[in-house]
Amino acid sequence: MRKSHWMSALVGVVLLILTGSGTAAPALVGDSAAARDLARETILSTAHYKIPLVRLTREDGKSILLPEEMNDGRPVVLNFIFTSCSSVCPLMSEVFSQFARKLGTERDKVHMMSISIDPEEDTPARLREYAHKFKAGPEWQHYTGTVEASVAAQRAFGAYYGDKMTHPAVTLLRAAPDTPWVRLDGFVTPDELLEKYRQMLQQHTQALATR
């Protein structure tokens, strides 16, 4: 299936998820950020990011330090969302949901993280409800905190755009601590995300073997 056709199908899936739960449907028409991201190809790059020493709160209410949470021994797949978003975020979250499903038993080895960019509204309870809508398992966790902590995390990963209503889709992957991050700007399909994830792990394994 072509990417444009797949994205159209994905919008339909998210519509069913959100309208079935009483949430407003994605307002893609007129949403310039969402429309722009859907129209363009994904841009892949690599970068080194310094994880900020900030404290966040997980959807289960536990307070965590971000570096410790990210450096738990598992590969990381990261994005930034907010629960009242009606365009970019539900599409990214549905991609994460299908990515986890496609991993099968491999999903136990990955740490999927979604950090809220609207922490004043996104309480742990709201994050739990949001995670449930997208069938998030224990491999996929959601985080909130203070505005300062959220902005610091966004800035550290080059994902701060000032206005939550126009933030673009960004997905970040890392195989292990002290390795480069793979950055995907724009919407990816679950199959594309799975392909990039496995390529990253393979390259990391090969790099370890040559040391």
Description:
By secondary structure, this protein is of the alpha+beta class. It has one domain (3-209): Glutaredoxin (3-Layer(aba) Sandwich). It is 41% helix and 18% strand. It contains seven helices and eight strands; from the N terminus they run H-H-E-E-E-H-E-H-E-H-E-H-E-E-H. It has an eight-stranded mixed sheet with strand order 1-8-7-4-5-6-2-3, sandwiched between helices. Strand 2 (55-58) and strand 3 (63-65) form a beta hairpin. The N and C termini lie far apart (40 Å). Residues 22-31 have low confidence and may be disordered.
Record keyword descriptors for this entry:
211 residues; alpha+beta; Glutaredoxin; 8-stranded mixed sheet; 7 helices; globular
Helix content: 40-55%
Name of the CATH class = Alpha Beta
CATH topology type: Glutaredoxin
Strand order of the largest sheet: 1-8-7-4-5-6-2-3
Low-confidence spans: pLDDT under 50, at least 5 residues?
Answer: 22-31
Number of strands: 8
What kind of sheet is the major sheet? 8 strands, mixed
Please describe the topology of this protein:
Layout: H1 3-20, H2 32-39, E1 43-47, E2 55-58, E3 63-65, H3 66-70, E4 76-81, H4 88-103, E5 111-116, H5 124-133, E6 140-144, H6 147-156, E7 170-174, E8 181-185, H7 190-209
Parallel strand pairs: 4-5, 5-6
Antiparallel strand pairs: 1-8, 2-3, 2-6, 4-7, 7-8
Helix pairs in contact: 1-4, 4-7
